[in-house]
Design a protein that fits this description.
The chain is of the alpha/beta class. It folds into 2 domains: 4-127, Rossmann fold, CATH 3.40.50; 131-230, Orthogonal Bundle (Arc Repressor Mutant, subunit A), CATH 1.10.10. It has helices at 12-24, 35-45, 61-70, 88-96, 109-123, 157-168, 176-184, 192-206, and strands at residues 4-8, 28-32, 49-53, 79-83, 101-104, 131-134, 137-140, 145-148, 151-153, 215-218, 222-225. A 5-stranded parallel β-sheet has the order 2-1-3-4-5, with helices on both faces. It has a 4-stranded antiparallel β-sheet with strand order 6-7-8-9, with helices on one face. The chain has a two-stranded antiparallel ribbon with strand order 10-11. A hairpin with a 4-residue loop joins strand 7 (137-140) and strand 8. Helix 6 crosses helix 7 and helix 7 packs across helix 8 (192-206). It is elongated, with a radius of gyration of 19 Å.
């Protein structure tokens, strides 16, 4: 599915510009206007990338960056800092705090999108490529084709989207609510048990030729696509 980007910025006009360009490029967008809201959104949403303004109310972007990096559950989320502070010393402080990249205002949307793609390719390659691989499962997004152990697996549209979401978040335990939001979308009402139905269908397709089930059920938490269980 589309990567989720959290914009942490208190300037409404810039947020609107960023949202327009990101959604036009296929990203899902979340927003936070201060550091405290940003930390809540990071914990709740687990975004795929954070665009983080340095100068924020209540808590600076620098401190937000440090806190994200201290938490084992969020430390691997890519962060690009956006700031009017363009001096070399400021860039060094931002990178030392844990930012993956640093872009000074004003900037062009095209440059920002290119920087985002570069960070995702480097840190979360599954979100930037046309081919996803998890153990012995390979997904060709462009061709809408999935193979396991070299054999083609036929999936329905929903099972394909579900597997793609799992492969973009390998090893992460995903709750039913997260799967509903990521696969079906927030604007569509779907019951949680629908997730279980499609998980069963996906398992049946993936495991037709093997007893090695790559999808792990985590009681009271959700599901996870295990790389090791897929022969990695």
């Amino acid at each position: 599915m589309h990567p989720t980007v959290l914009i942490v910025e208190d300037e409404p006009s810039l947020v609107a510009l960023l949202r327009y360009n990101l959604e036009k490029s296929g990203y899902r967008v979340e927003e936070a206007v201060d550091g405290q809201e940003a930390m809540l959104k990071v914990q709740e949403e687990k975004p795929d990338l954070v665009l983080l303004d340095w100068m924020l109310p209540q808590m600076s972007g620098l401190e937000v960056c440090r806190q994200i990096r201290r938490n084992p559950a969020t430390r691997n989320i890519p962060i690009i800092m956006l700031t009017a502070r363009g001096e070399e010393g400021d860039r060094v402080r931002g990178l030392d705090a844990g930012a993956d990249d640093y872009i000074a205002k004003p900037f062009s949307p095209g440059e920002l999108l290119a920087r985002m793609r570069a960070v995702l390719r480097r840190i979360r390659p599954a979100l930037a490529e046309e081919m996803l691989t998890c153990g012995d499962i390979v997904m060709d997004i462009a061709a809408h084709k999935v193979t396991r152990q070299g054999k083609e697996i036929r999936l329905g549209p929903t099972e394909f989207r579900l597997l793609r979401y799992f492969m973009e978040h390998p090893g992460r335990v995903l709750s039913r609510d997260q799967l509903l939001d990521g696969v079906w979308g927030r604007d569509v009402y779907v019951e949680q048990r629908t997730v279980d139905v499609h998980i069963r269908r996906l398992r049946k397709a993936l495991n037709a030729e093997t007893e090695d089930d790559p999808i792990r059920t985590v009681r009271s938490a959700g599901y996870s696509l295990e790389v090791s269980a897929s022969g990695a």
